[in-house]
Fold:
Amino acid sequence: MAAGASSRVDLNQLPDQGGVKECLQWFTHEKQWINEKHLELCRVPAPTFQEADRALWFLGEFRALGWEASIGEKGVGEKGSA
Structure:
């Protein structure tokens, strides 16, 4: 598509597409878990420029899911290292 050209997308049809539909179903099914994780995240103090505790929380969550995760050198500050 040429730069500046636009294509029309019917957003009303988007939820019926296979991958989107499955994703929306997952979110609906996992709503309680998502809300619980959101509350856990919000309970971790993270004042501006002091987000290390929240970063460490995320790191633990990713690792618990089996993902390889780390925090960059500048991402932890004085709270420790990952």
Residues 61 and 73 are 19 Å apart (CA to CA). Residues 29-79 form one domain. The first helix runs from residue 18 to 29.
